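agent> Task received from the user: take the single chain below, predict its 3D structure, and emit structure tokens. No templates, no multimer pairing.
agent> Plan: (1) validate residues, (2) run structure prediction, (3) serialize to tokens, (4) report one or two observations.
agent> Step 1 OK, no nonstandard residues flagged.
tool_call: predict_structure(input=
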Amino acid sequence: MQIIKPNTNINFVGHKKLAITFSWILIIIGIFSMVSKGGLNLGLDFAGGSLVQVKMNKVTTAAEMRETLSPLELKGMTIQQVGDLSDEFLIKAQESSSKTESLANNVQQALEGHYGAGTVDIRRAEMVGPQVGKDLRYKGMMAIVYSIIGMLIYITFRFEFRFGVGVVIALFHDVLITLAFFSVFNKEIDLTVVAAFLTIVGYSVNDSVIICDRIRENMTRHVGNKLEWIINRSLNDTLSRTVMTSGITLLSVLALYLFGGEVLSNFAMAMIIGIIIGTHSSIFVAAPVILYFDKDKDKTAAVPATVNS
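)
tool_result: status=success, residues=309
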């Protein structure tokens, strides 16, 4: 099934400057947001601390609950409403020492002392030590870096080094812009989001490999044409497949975001951004970058020395 006509001839490479400018704007906005906010909004997994999720049987607000819990003197306490629910709240504190092990009981007693007995239902209570959070943060970052390095080695071995460089630049592009969105909208980054980043890396590479394979194929099929023409032809050849695959995957992840609940919302949001930006980078970043690594880009493309099957 093809939703794009086979003879489509869009000049993708001709619009690369506009597309790359758009990407730089998003990245700069993300960097500015991270700097102005003092970093990313790290979840309990990475920042360490304690968390209690409560369901209130009386109408209240986060401000009123904060005032009620102030006598507990919890360091760095934040209270936020869970999703669109008006009766559930997340209470977080930076402390994770032994004195916060009974945080859930202390919170329940303080709230029931103000709102009345039986008005508070503790849904969950978690605690992560600072050293554990630091270790998880380091391992999560290294997992993403190692996966990108592995992709560079694979693409270089499978195609050529310049193909690998283009794909890796596109991968960093995808991760940076996804982080930018999370910073701008102040979304938490936890282990599920790191899992989403790793999934984005794999998904984006899969799309880029298809395009690179068609570029290599067209380099042998259309000898004598400029590399820019070959890249454009390859992008148009794979456009139908790219739109179909990305569109169906996006619909699935969108359903997960809408109906998967609060626990999966950040994972699904990262995947939605990653799929859209990953498709953009496969077309406007990974493939055009090859031109910048071609010494004879103004000359006709030469036939590769070897062609892997």
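agent> Step 4: summary for the user.
The chain has two domains: 13-41+132-292, 49-128.
agent> Done.
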